[in-house]
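Help wanted!
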Amino acid sequence: MTSLRSKGSFLKFYSWLPLIILFISVFNEFDFNYLNLDYFSFNFPFILIFFFTLKDFKNFDYILVFIAGLFNDTVVGLPLGVSSLSYILICIATSYFRNITIRPNPIKDWFYFLFVVSLINSINYSILTLFFSFNLVLMSYLVNTFFTFLFYIIFVSIFKFYLKTLND
Amino acid sequence: MASSRDDFIIAIRSAFLKKSTQQKFSLLTLVFISVFIIVLSSLELKVIKFIKVGINEFVYRSSFVVSIPENLLISTFSEISEYTTFFNKYKKNKDELDQFKSKNISNEIILNENKELKELINNYVSSSDKLLAKIIVDHNSPFLKSIIINKGSKDDIKIGTNIYDQSYLVGRVIEVNYKSSRVLLLSDLNSNVPVTIAPQNIQAIITGIGDNNGKIKYIKDGLSEKLENDSIVYTSGTGAIFKSGVPIGKLKILKNEISTELKVQFYSDFSQLKYVFAEILTNTPIQNLDNENTNNQKKNPIDAKVQILEDEIEIIEDTNVKFKEENENLKVKINDLNDQVFDLNNEITRQKEKINQFDLDKEELEFLRLNLIYSHKCQTKKLFSTGFKVGTPEYKKCILNKGKKVND
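Answered by r_m:
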């Protein structure tokens, strides 16, 4: 009985894992900046949100994604709502892509992800420079987009493994 | 054609409006809320500020807790790399320490002088307390360079408070919460610092470029050629944003075929900051300070200045008296020296006379020697006389010519 209960609570925790990782990543930023590589950065929350909303994962609540965006803005020091808007736009893009896709293809997803990340980073850059007069390095955004695109395929294989273990 | 457009509209409508069984809000609602929050956060309303401060406090603390494992990993990594270079660093530090100790004394004198001059200019004494603050969040974002410290309005931190790493400037506070603050680092693109470049004493403005260097954003035309490598860059205090005379870094001139780039290498490594100092400034007018310290109450700053000027005059008068005394002493010394010169001149004359006498004696001796040999040739005889009478100059001449008789 105890074992069943503990197994159930672990399963519950396991099913909420993507959201927990999302919140840890916005609080902590997996940026690898201590490697001292010029411009190197990638946006892990983008990959996570894109994948799990594309798969319509049941525990990936939009409102929690929205709140994660608010936390990210606070930690990074951006005006409140900018990251939330970015995350919600990813959700909209994946929702639209899910609706128009009959036969899913990982390569198509990957390149659609590149389009979405580029679009959202452009919106982000525009809002910050036009409305908030931030001085930003465009190169940082381009490199960030590129590495986020590259890392997507690696993380997707990990996330797929996760989904497989969850379904089993 | 019409059917594909319908499909697109249906897909878009579905994406924006359709809620899944698990979702509590449609995405369109959340987009509107996001935009609403962005607009509110740009309006700087007081209510929004309070809400933001509340969120900041919660998020910064949570972020600190969540970052513990990663920070542990990073600190272990840096500690291992530090141990490998430990001995070399120790030797280097020891040498530097010796140099600094010797410089410290002269610096203290300059600081005191500087303080006195500032008091004269400003009519108030600026005293500062440096508050130690721990960095609770340092994510070194690729886009914004800022850190969060664990001191806020509770500890008298204000917007614009200067933040130091030891005595080097690292940034200033741009957002204050109750028990935490955000510091904009000098390496951020939005950071502009008015500086003085020494020893050329050139004014400039530096800005961050994202890494551990800054660049000179503005300098008067023609002055950049006067700059030298490794010149010291420190705050000029222009605009009263930063305190003056705080060291920032060293100037590095990077020349290539096309252009010359002026970079500032910061003294402080912003990626290695763990603790910083926040400077809490309090300005006390000179008038009050005098009242506290002395019984002679000064009514206004002009009195204080007059008092200082009177003291200066007194010092100058004392110095003048000393100069006069010294002058008298020098005069006496000059007289003594003149006497000595006179004595020496007499001595020289005497010596010269002695030398002349010696020369004469020598000539006489030579004459007597030759006289013994050649006197018979030059003396006059009774018959058929061809010589000269003894004692005459002709006789002497003949002797000196060794008996040869020369006709005039």
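OP: Thanks! One thing I noticed: Chain B has a mean pLDDT of 80.
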